[in-house]
């Protein structure tokens, strides 16, 4: 879909629906904090909080024992990135095969893209180079996050809901398909060297900067649980300091948003579908960041009052 189109494809509708769901979840969470204590402890709100929280924000939630049946370890986050690396490398290889050997996508993939976009596939049109570049950057991003989960981050016994885990498993599959959907709706020559090449260049630079910010933030978080020797000394939660933690409670979430914005620029800046993805990431990370921020504020009386949740000076 392009900016000039008014109809929403299936893939557009899915991302818009997810964005609205997390916007509603964010709004409900903010509003529930103003309710009397007896209402905040209701079964319905407890179930809602159980579904949106994970990790350290879930550990302070008072919930019925039967709800713990659906807990899975938060350290399983690495499963998401492992799937993302494998799936996006697979799509990347198919795209290279299409470009250099002129062999079209498999019929099952072509049919899936047609269903998602509502646009008949052009079997003779190779993927745009900008699309291939975004797939490559997604692979780089997922591989870095996988390595960070395995070798940098120090996970406690925090948990996430089974629904969150299953959602995460499917998320990057749909994300890779969303990138390919841009080929069926894009206009103009399939080349990086076009009138919008400077936008793509800016996107690449932003991707590098945001990735470095996120990595620095993950290292600082892991350092809270490690001694000078690099060995894990505690699993307790501490107030993060240094880097962009001086501005926001969750700079790694802000970096995640910037990474998705950068991929939108790398696609040329005119993919309506991808900006719906960015909208979803905004509300998703806003909710996660607000939950962490609320925990820090309630747990530490001396927590810096100038810090925002995840967007500096804004939210």
Describe the structure.
It is globular and about 60 Å long. It starts with 9 loop residues before the first helix and ends in a 16-residue tail after the last helix. A two-stranded antiparallel ribbon has the order 1-2. The chain has eleven helices and two strands, in the order ααααβαααβαααα. The protein has helices at 10-32, 37-40, 43-52, 56-59, 77-101, 107-117, 129-151, 162-185, 197-223, 251-266, 272-299; strands spanning 71-73, 159-161. The chain has 315 residues and is mainly alpha-helical. The chain folds into two domains: 46-187, no CATH class; 195-314. 34% of the residues are buried. α5 runs antiparallel to α7.
Number of helices: 11
Number of strands: 2
> Roughly how many Å apart are the termini?
30 Å
What spatial order of strands do you see in the largest sheet?
A: 1-2
Strand coverage percent = under 5%
Largest sheet: 2 strands, antiparallel
What is the mean pLDDT? 89
Helix/strand order, N-terminal first: HHHHEHHHEHHHH
Regions with little confidence, pLDDT below 50 for 5+ residues? 1-5, 188-193
Indicate the percent of residues in helices.
Answer: 55-70%
List the domain count as a whole number.
2
Q: Tell me the overall shape.
A: globular
EC number: 1.3.1.22, 1.3.1.94
Subcellular location: Endoplasmic reticulum membrane
Pathway: Protein modification; protein glycosylation
Pfam families: Steroid_dh
């Amino acid at each position: 879909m392009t900016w000039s189109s008014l109809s929403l494809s299936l893939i557009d509708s899915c991302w818009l629906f997810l964005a609205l769901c997390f916007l509603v979840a964010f709004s409900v969470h903010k509003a529930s904090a103003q309710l009397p204590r007896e209402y905040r402890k209701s079964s319905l709100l407890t179930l809602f909080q159980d579904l949106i929280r994970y990790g350290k924000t879930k550990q302070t939630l008072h919930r019925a024992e039967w709800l713990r049946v659906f807990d899975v370890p938060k350290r399983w986050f690495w499963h998401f990135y492992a799937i993302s690396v494998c799936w996006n490398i697979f799509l990347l290889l198919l795209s290279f095969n299409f470009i250099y050997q002129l062999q079209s996508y498999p019929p099952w993939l072509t049919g899936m893209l047609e269903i998602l976009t509502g646009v008949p596939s052009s079997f003779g049109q190779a993927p745009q180079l900008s699309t291939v570049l975004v797939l490559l950057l997604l692979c780089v991003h997922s591989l870095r996050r996988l390595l960070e989960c395995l070798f940098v981050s120090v996970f406690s016994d925090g948990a996430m809901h089974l629904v969150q885990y299953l959602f995460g498993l499917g998320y990057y599959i749909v994300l890779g398909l969303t990138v390919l959907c841009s080929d069926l709706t894009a206009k103009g020559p399939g080349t990086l060297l076009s009138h919008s090449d400077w936008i793509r260049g800016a996107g690449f630079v932003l991707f590098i900067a945001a990735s470095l910010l996120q990595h620095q933030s993950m290292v600082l978080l892991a350092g809270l649980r490690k001694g000078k020797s690099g060995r894990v000394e505690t699993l307790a939660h501490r107030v993060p300091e240094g880097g962009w933690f001086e501005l926001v409670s969750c700079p790694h979430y802000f970096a995640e948003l910037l990474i998705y914005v950068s991929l939108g620029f790398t696609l040329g800046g005119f993919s309506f579908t991808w900006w719906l993805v960015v909208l979803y990431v905004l509300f998703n990370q806003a909710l996660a960041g607000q939950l962490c921020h609320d925990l820090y504020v309630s747990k530490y009386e001396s927590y810096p009052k100038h810090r925002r949740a995840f967007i500096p000076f804004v939210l």
